Amino acid sequence: MTIPPTRSAPFYFTALALGLSGACAILVGCQQASRPTSGKQTLTLGAVVALTGNASLIGQDQRIGLELAESEFGSRPPALSLRLEDGGSDEQTATTAFRRLLQQPVVALIGPSLSQQAFAVNPIADRAGVPVLGASNTAIGIPQIGPFVSRISAPVSKVAPLSIQAAKRLNPKLERVAVFFAQDDAYSTSETKIFQKSIQGLGLKLVTVQRTSTADIDFQKPIADTLQTRPDLIVISALPNDGGNLVRQLREMGYAGLIAAGNGMNSPNIYSVCQRYCDGLLIAQAYSPEAKTSVNRRFVQLYQKRHGDKAPPQFTAQAYAAMQVIREALTRLDRQESLRSQSRNQALATMPLPELRRALNTILLQGAYDTPLGEIRFTPEGEVIQKDFYVARVKMDAKGKTGRFALLPNPSPATP
Question: Can you give the pLDDT of all 416 residues of the chain as single tens digits?
Fold first, then answer.
């Protein structure tokens, strides 16, 4: 059976450089992938997340989600074994991790943690014909990388405006807005465009735009410049480490107004960075542990069984959902192939690996999935379709050591 991909892959400026530097590794991966069959009943799923570097606070959340998913349904037929690689927080480490996995008989890949990395490494997997499902890549243009690239992480255009709208509801007199964003990160540069468009769309005045770096730890100069503009709201697109430090220093230097942060800071791991100064931070979310669905309740129970009474964060839920979606797609494919070949419980193990990958990519995009994020589907291009979004405000405890994301009422509905 041959099921061709239905999308076309546009040219990206990273493709040529990666093609030249990684040709040997890609060829090795293709040689591995051209084996006659997948060869075993336990299929291998690869995942690349940031376990080191300045995005490791995100990657650690994702690791927990993947491990919970593997323990929950990895052994159910068709059995799925997880191979996890550290993608670091830069493009080169993620590239090495992707190439290492492509030398294995992986049926699909999850990751990497950052959109910046995805633009660099997803073309490699796409050219090798291996499905890649992004669990935390929200920048504009991710699904358009190629026919084997999709994501379950809602794009910034759907989520980011909700926190600006919430800030306006909390302070109807809000007029002046300052923006900070990490200029060396693709997610942040993509999200800040959406933030700025939303600010202007609400008739608010953008008083300053400050460019920072994910490696920055001292923000006193841009903060001092910003405070002179007398903002009512400060909007931040950054990662947990730099963003958390920025929030803390804003408060330490006397800013008392509202602060809205983007998806990169949507993790309880920020609590240890900005501590008591995290209190009041607004964040729009694609997941809420308070969602009252049977799937989410089960997921929360699994998480709390291992991590006490803490609520699971969005990055954990998205990573869990990514593995869930791939496994459910494999189950549907196994059922379909078993009927066709009349070979019970062996259908996927006997399929040629390249054919299995193509078939999985096609059937994955055609399904609907009941996940902790709610029901999700995909466009033919691989963009996620999700209807449930939330806005939360951080509530820190009296000691300023831990906190929770307290949902605000009446978030604006998302458009599919």
Answer: 434 444 444 433 344 344 444 444 433 334 333 444 444 578 999 999 999 998 999 999 999 999 999 999 878 888 899 999 999 999 999 999 999 999 999 999 999 999 999 999 999 999 999 999 999 999 999 999 999 999 999 999 999 999 999 999 999 999 999 999 999 999 999 999 999 999 999 999 999 999 999 999 999 999 999 999 999 999 999 999 999 999 999 999 999 999 999 888 998 999 999 999 999 999 999 999 989 999 999 999 999 999 988 899 999 999 999 999 999 999 999 999 877 766 555 678 888 999 999 999 999 999 999 999 999 999 999 999 999 999 999 999 999 999 999 999 855 444 33
Query: Which residues have CB under 8 Å from 309's CB, separation 6+?
Result: none
161 and 127 in a common domain: no
CB 18 within 8 A of CB 374: no
Q: Where do runs of H (alpha helix) occur along 275-391?
A: 294-307, 314-341, 353-366
- Asked whether residue 78 is domain-assigned, the answer is yes
Query: Can you give the CATH number for the domain in which 183 is found?
Result: 3.40.50.2300
Per the domain annotation, does 87 fall within a domain?
yes
pTM for the full model? 0.84
> Based on the domain organization, do 30 and 148 belong to the same domain?
yes
Q: Which domain holds residue 223?
A: 156-285+389-407
- Contact assessment for residue 327 and residue 80, using Cβ atoms and an 8 Å cutoff: yes
